[in-house]
User: What shape does this take?
Amino acid sequence: MLKNAVDNYFEEICARVYHHYEEILTRNNSLDFDDLLMKSVQLLREFPEVRRKYQERTNSSW
Assistant: This one.
């Protein structure tokens, strides 16, 4: 039971810290590495012309 309380407390602290970190990133109009990856995926999904351009580049390289 004590271990669960410690685990829950640790998870709560981690969640608060991460939330604060995300707020700071947003306030500073910044992205971290995982945001960059997700924005890249979003860009390629939402803009077929960009996706085609990069597909052409990667296919012609091989």
